[in-house]
Amino acid sequence: MTELRQASTVLLLRDGTPGLEVYLLRRTRGMPFAGGMTAYPGGGVDLRDGDVETAWVGPPPAQWAAVFGCDERVARELVCAAVRETFEEAGVLLAGPPDGATVVPDVSGEDWEAQRQALLSRELSLAELLADRGLALRADLLRPFAHWVTPPEETRRYDTKFFVAALPVGQEARHVSGEADEAGWVTPAGALAQLHDGSRPMLPPTIHTLGQLVPFPDVAAALAGSPPEPLSPISPTFEDEPDGRWAVLPDGTRIRLVVPLPA
């Protein structure tokens, strides 16, 4: 059985003209995992995500550990990875002064970009970046949303925690990820419509979490509507039927992944 790697994914939200919107990336087709698929910003935990020196505002690691069913070290890594990956892949930083009163308003300048690149190359850790800027990680801006585990038969397996977060006032998500060839804001219902017309392929966790977002009219409702804690891990099985390939969740929910093309 392939070893599980801890990972974090962030559903970055904003209130747009058509309603609630989520920031989505289309991974480049050459990627070894989920190439060509639409996904959220996120990725695997880095060893330095567990640095205890990271300034922190919001629910402590022990509280996140209870939500995710893990130890405090892993919980710290997951929250830090969520913040780090959101900055690396969307240019959005969930951080602010240690008093927790505000969020850093703009992280798009050349000096910020140099530090983002240093994060990507692992020349700089998130703790070092925040310390250099006199900032604290804002764990209070994140909400737990889902917990998915890649099925055992897959060659790359992730134990992924999904978070939701609002786009901070004054910041803009930017298409800066070298792992994506397209990025932008879309309503959850709009993204699912593109899935069904064949223009936006996705993996089961993305499909299901977008469906969970559809009922929420705005960001405030989505942040307030996080599921009950602790989160139960979801690991699907798969079935091939005449009408397409389906992912079957533990509660019996069926998600169609491939829609047959017309004859």
From TrEMBL:
GO terms for molecular function: hydrolase activity, acting on acid anhydrides, in phosphorus-containing anhydrides; metal ion binding. The lineage of its organism: Bacteria, Bacillati, Actinomycetota, Actinomycetes, Geodermatophilales. It comes from the Bacteria. InterPro entries: NUDIX_hydrolase-like_dom_sf, NUDIX_hydrolase_dom, NUDT19. Its cofactor is Mn(2+); Mg(2+). The keyword Iron-sulfur does not apply. PANTHER family: ACYL-COENZYME A DIPHOSPHATASE NUDT19, TESTOSTERONE-REGULATED PROTEIN RP2. Signal peptide: none annotated. This is Nudix hydrolase domain-containing protein.
